[in-house]
Write a structure and sequence with these properties.
The chain is of the alpha/beta class. Helices cover 35% and strands 11% of the residues. It has helices at 7-10, 32-41, 61-73, 125-133, 181-196, 208-211, 213-217, 226-239, 260-283, and strands at 49-55, 95-97, 109-113, 167-173, 201-206, 246-248.
Protein backbone atom coordinates (compact mmCIF):
# COMPACT_ATOMS: atom_id res chain seq x y z
CA UNK A 1 0.00 0.00 0.00
CA UNK A 2 1.37 3.39 -1.00
CA UNK A 3 1.98 5.84 1.86
CA UNK A 4 0.65 9.37 1.64
CA UNK A 5 3.44 11.92 1.54
CA UNK A 6 2.60 15.46 2.51
CA UNK A 7 3.42 18.27 0.11
CA UNK A 8 5.30 20.02 2.93
CA UNK A 9 7.66 17.04 3.25
CA UNK A 10 8.34 16.98 -0.50
CA UNK A 11 8.43 20.74 -0.97
CA UNK A 12 9.62 22.53 2.20
CA UNK A 13 8.62 26.16 2.46
CA UNK A 14 11.07 28.55 0.82
CA UNK A 15 13.33 30.55 3.12
CA UNK A 16 12.14 34.01 4.08
CA UNK A 17 13.39 36.74 1.71
CA UNK A 18 14.22 38.76 4.84
CA UNK A 19 16.79 36.20 6.00
CA UNK A 20 20.15 35.48 4.39
CA UNK A 21 21.16 31.83 3.77
CA UNK A 22 24.31 32.17 5.87
CA UNK A 23 25.34 34.16 8.95
CA UNK A 24 27.34 37.30 8.19
CA UNK A 25 29.09 37.08 11.58
CA UNK A 26 30.19 33.92 13.37
CA UNK A 27 28.42 33.30 16.68
CA UNK A 28 29.40 30.55 19.14
CA UNK A 29 25.91 29.06 19.39
CA UNK A 30 25.91 26.19 21.83
CA UNK A 31 29.12 27.38 23.51
CA UNK A 32 27.58 29.58 26.17
CA UNK A 33 29.30 27.63 28.95
CA UNK A 34 32.75 28.62 27.67
CA UNK A 35 31.95 32.34 27.52
CA UNK A 36 30.27 32.19 30.90
CA UNK A 37 33.36 30.55 32.38
CA UNK A 38 35.57 33.32 30.95
CA UNK A 39 33.46 35.95 32.70
CA UNK A 40 33.30 34.02 35.96
CA UNK A 41 37.06 33.46 36.06
CA UNK A 42 38.04 36.98 35.00
CA UNK A 43 40.39 38.76 37.42
CA UNK A 44 41.51 42.32 36.69
CA UNK A 45 45.19 43.19 36.77
CA UNK A 46 44.58 46.60 38.41
CA UNK A 47 41.02 47.82 38.96
CA UNK A 48 37.48 46.55 38.53
CA UNK A 49 36.33 47.55 35.04
CA UNK A 50 33.81 50.40 35.12
CA UNK A 51 31.28 50.23 32.27
CA UNK A 52 28.97 53.18 31.63
CA UNK A 53 25.93 52.94 29.40
CA UNK A 54 24.37 55.91 27.64
CA UNK A 55 21.72 56.39 24.98
CA UNK A 56 18.26 57.70 24.25
CA UNK A 57 15.27 57.24 26.56
CA UNK A 58 13.91 53.71 26.40
CA UNK A 59 16.90 52.30 24.51
CA UNK A 60 17.34 49.51 27.06
CA UNK A 61 20.27 50.63 29.23
CA UNK A 62 18.81 49.50 32.57
CA UNK A 63 17.34 46.40 30.95
CA UNK A 64 20.79 45.39 29.69
CA UNK A 65 22.21 45.61 33.22
CA UNK A 66 19.35 43.41 34.44
CA UNK A 67 19.95 41.00 31.55
CA UNK A 68 23.65 40.63 32.38
CA UNK A 69 22.77 39.91 36.00
CA UNK A 70 20.14 37.41 34.84
CA UNK A 71 22.73 35.57 32.74
CA UNK A 72 25.26 35.38 35.58
CA UNK A 73 22.71 34.32 38.19
CA UNK A 74 20.78 31.97 35.91
CA UNK A 75 17.46 33.59 36.81
CA UNK A 76 15.57 36.70 35.75
CA UNK A 77 16.34 39.81 37.84
CA UNK A 78 15.15 43.41 37.74
CA UNK A 79 17.36 45.34 40.16
CA UNK A 80 17.81 48.26 37.75
CA UNK A 81 14.25 49.58 37.56
CA UNK A 82 12.65 50.08 34.15
CA UNK A 83 9.38 51.49 32.86
CA UNK A 84 7.16 50.00 30.16
CA UNK A 85 5.39 53.25 29.29
CA UNK A 86 8.39 55.17 27.96
CA UNK A 87 8.60 58.74 26.70
CA UNK A 88 10.53 60.01 29.73
CA UNK A 89 13.62 58.61 31.37
CA UNK A 90 12.75 56.35 34.30
CA UNK A 91 16.35 56.51 35.49
CA UNK A 92 16.97 59.91 37.08
CA UNK A 93 20.09 59.24 39.16
CA UNK A 94 23.66 58.19 38.50
CA UNK A 95 23.52 54.61 39.71
CA UNK A 96 26.31 52.11 40.24
CA UNK A 97 25.56 48.39 40.00
CA UNK A 98 27.78 45.54 41.07
CA UNK A 99 26.69 41.93 40.59
CA UNK A 100 27.07 39.47 43.45
CA UNK A 101 29.23 36.47 42.68
CA UNK A 102 29.04 34.58 45.97
CA UNK A 103 27.89 36.07 49.28
CA UNK A 104 30.35 38.80 50.22
CA UNK A 105 32.00 39.11 46.80
CA UNK A 106 31.04 40.59 43.45
CA UNK A 107 32.17 40.28 39.84
CA UNK A 108 35.16 42.55 39.10
CA UNK A 109 33.23 44.90 36.84
CA UNK A 110 30.82 47.71 37.62
CA UNK A 111 27.94 49.12 35.58
CA UNK A 112 26.96 52.77 35.73
CA UNK A 113 23.47 53.66 34.57
CA UNK A 114 22.49 57.20 33.68
CA UNK A 115 19.45 59.23 32.67
CA UNK A 116 18.51 58.92 29.01
CA UNK A 117 19.09 61.52 26.33
CA UNK A 118 15.99 63.41 25.19
CA UNK A 119 15.37 66.18 22.68
CA UNK A 120 14.72 68.98 25.18
CA UNK A 121 15.05 67.18 28.53
CA UNK A 122 17.08 64.22 29.72
CA UNK A 123 20.67 64.08 30.87
CA UNK A 124 23.01 66.96 29.99
CA UNK A 125 25.83 65.89 27.71
CA UNK A 126 28.24 67.76 29.99
CA UNK A 127 27.19 65.49 32.88
CA UNK A 128 28.06 62.43 30.78
CA UNK A 129 31.52 63.91 30.14
CA UNK A 130 31.99 64.62 33.85
CA UNK A 131 30.93 61.05 34.69
CA UNK A 132 33.47 59.65 32.24
CA UNK A 133 36.20 61.58 34.08
CA UNK A 134 34.98 60.26 37.45
CA UNK A 135 33.65 63.57 38.78
CA UNK A 136 30.06 62.35 39.37
CA UNK A 137 29.28 60.57 42.63
CA UNK A 138 26.97 57.59 42.87
CA UNK A 139 23.42 58.76 43.60
CA UNK A 140 23.67 62.15 41.88
CA UNK A 141 20.23 63.30 40.74
CA UNK A 142 20.53 64.55 37.15
CA UNK A 143 19.18 68.01 36.36
CA UNK A 144 18.11 68.24 32.71
CA UNK A 145 18.45 72.02 32.75
CA UNK A 146 21.93 72.38 34.20
CA UNK A 147 25.00 70.22 34.57
CA UNK A 148 26.82 69.35 37.78
CA UNK A 149 29.03 72.15 39.15
CA UNK A 150 32.24 71.93 41.15
CA UNK A 151 30.45 73.39 44.16
CA UNK A 152 27.85 70.63 44.24
CA UNK A 153 28.13 68.01 47.01
CA UNK A 154 27.87 65.27 44.38
CA UNK A 155 30.94 66.55 42.53
CA UNK A 156 34.03 64.39 43.05
CA UNK A 157 36.97 66.81 42.99
CA UNK A 158 39.73 64.24 43.02
CA UNK A 159 38.63 61.13 41.09
CA UNK A 160 40.76 58.01 41.28
CA UNK A 161 41.32 55.53 38.46
CA UNK A 162 38.55 53.43 39.98
CA UNK A 163 36.11 56.36 39.71
CA UNK A 164 36.75 56.91 36.02
CA UNK A 165 34.85 55.16 33.24
CA UNK A 166 36.95 52.46 31.57
CA UNK A 167 34.63 51.55 28.68
CA UNK A 168 31.69 53.47 27.25
CA UNK A 169 28.69 51.65 25.79
CA UNK A 170 26.25 53.37 23.45
CA UNK A 171 22.83 51.71 23.60
CA UNK A 172 20.68 52.01 20.47
CA UNK A 173 17.25 50.40 19.93
CA UNK A 174 17.17 48.37 16.75
CA UNK A 175 13.45 49.02 16.43
CA UNK A 176 13.80 52.72 15.59
CA UNK A 177 12.92 53.57 12.01
CA UNK A 178 15.66 56.18 11.75
CA UNK A 179 18.06 58.14 13.88
CA UNK A 180 16.89 61.67 14.71
CA UNK A 181 19.31 64.54 14.04
CA UNK A 182 19.21 65.81 17.64
CA UNK A 183 19.93 62.35 19.08
CA UNK A 184 22.73 61.77 16.59
CA UNK A 185 24.32 65.10 17.50
CA UNK A 186 24.34 64.28 21.24
CA UNK A 187 25.49 60.68 20.79
CA UNK A 188 28.25 61.82 18.47
CA UNK A 189 29.35 64.54 20.90
CA UNK A 190 29.69 61.94 23.67
CA UNK A 191 31.58 59.60 21.36
CA UNK A 192 34.08 62.30 20.38
CA UNK A 193 34.59 63.25 24.05
CA UNK A 194 35.38 59.60 24.82
CA UNK A 195 37.86 59.58 21.95
CA UNK A 196 39.65 62.60 23.44
CA UNK A 197 39.83 60.77 26.79
CA UNK A 198 40.98 57.61 24.95
CA UNK A 199 38.12 55.63 26.50
CA UNK A 200 37.22 52.57 24.42
CA UNK A 201 33.69 52.46 23.03
CA UNK A 202 31.31 49.86 21.75
CA UNK A 203 27.62 49.94 20.84
CA UNK A 204 24.84 47.48 21.52
CA UNK A 205 21.75 47.24 19.36
CA UNK A 206 18.80 46.29 21.57
CA UNK A 207 15.19 45.19 20.96
CA UNK A 208 16.25 43.12 17.96
CA UNK A 209 13.27 40.80 18.39
CA UNK A 210 10.92 43.79 18.00
CA UNK A 211 12.89 45.20 15.09
CA UNK A 212 12.92 42.01 13.03
CA UNK A 213 10.04 39.48 13.14
CA UNK A 214 12.36 36.74 11.89
CA UNK A 215 14.56 37.23 14.96
CA UNK A 216 11.45 37.40 17.13
CA UNK A 217 10.55 33.92 15.88
CA UNK A 218 14.09 32.53 16.20
CA UNK A 219 16.86 34.57 17.79
CA UNK A 220 19.43 32.49 15.94
CA UNK A 221 18.43 34.44 12.82
CA UNK A 222 20.11 37.53 14.27
CA UNK A 223 23.13 37.34 11.98
CA UNK A 224 21.06 36.26 9.01
CA UNK A 225 18.63 39.17 9.27
CA UNK A 226 18.91 41.59 6.35
CA UNK A 227 17.23 44.29 8.43
CA UNK A 228 19.70 44.06 11.34
CA UNK A 229 22.67 43.95 8.97
CA UNK A 230 21.40 47.15 7.36
CA UNK A 231 20.71 48.72 10.77
CA UNK A 232 24.24 48.01 11.98
CA UNK A 233 25.61 49.55 8.78
CA UNK A 234 23.38 52.60 9.40
CA UNK A 235 24.62 53.02 12.99
CA UNK A 236 28.19 52.64 11.79
CA UNK A 237 27.72 55.23 9.05
CA UNK A 238 25.99 57.79 11.27
CA UNK A 239 27.88 57.43 14.58
CA UNK A 240 31.20 56.05 13.36
CA UNK A 241 31.34 52.77 15.28
CA UNK A 242 33.11 50.05 13.27
CA UNK A 243 30.57 47.27 12.51
CA UNK A 244 32.58 44.76 14.57
CA UNK A 245 32.10 47.03 17.61
CA UNK A 246 28.29 46.92 17.33
CA UNK A 247 26.65 43.99 19.12
CA UNK A 248 22.99 43.08 18.64
CA UNK A 249 21.41 41.79 21.86
CA UNK A 250 18.00 40.86 23.18
CA UNK A 251 17.30 42.04 26.72
CA UNK A 252 15.11 40.03 29.06
CA UNK A 253 11.78 41.84 29.43
CA UNK A 254 8.80 39.49 29.44
CA UNK A 255 10.55 36.16 30.08
CA UNK A 256 10.42 34.22 33.33
CA UNK A 257 13.44 32.06 32.52
CA UNK A 258 16.78 32.61 30.80
CA UNK A 259 17.64 31.17 27.40
CA UNK A 260 21.03 29.88 26.22
CA UNK A 261 20.76 31.64 22.83
CA UNK A 262 19.81 34.99 24.36
CA UNK A 263 22.59 34.54 26.93
CA UNK A 264 25.09 33.89 24.14
CA UNK A 265 24.51 37.31 22.55
CA UNK A 266 24.65 39.10 25.91
CA UNK A 267 27.88 37.31 26.89
CA UNK A 268 29.46 38.16 23.54
CA UNK A 269 28.89 41.88 24.20
CA UNK A 270 29.91 41.62 27.86
CA UNK A 271 33.22 39.89 27.19
CA UNK A 272 34.14 42.62 24.69
CA UNK A 273 33.31 45.29 27.28
CA UNK A 274 35.48 43.60 29.90
CA UNK A 275 38.43 43.09 27.56
CA UNK A 276 38.26 46.67 26.24
CA UNK A 277 38.04 48.11 29.75
CA UNK A 278 40.91 45.93 30.96
CA UNK A 279 43.11 47.12 28.10
CA UNK A 280 42.29 50.75 28.89
CA UNK A 281 43.15 50.40 32.58
CA UNK A 282 46.37 48.51 31.87
CA UNK A 283 47.54 51.11 29.35
CA UNK A 284 47.29 53.95 31.85
Amino acid sequence: MKKNVSCAAVNPPPPSPKVLPHEWRNVPWGKKAGDLQIVKEYQPFKEDVRIMLYGSVGAGKSSFINSVESVLRGEITDRAKTDAIGGKSFTTKYREYTIQKVPGTHYPFVFNDIMGLEKDEGVCVEDIKLAMKGHVKDGYNFNPRSSLSENDQDYNRDPSLNDRVHVLVCVIPGSIAGMQDDSVRKLREVRLAARDMEIPEIAILTKIDEACPEVGRDIRNVYKSKYLKKKIEEVSGVLGFPPNCIFPVKNYNSEHETSDNTDTLILSALTRMIKSGEDFVNDL
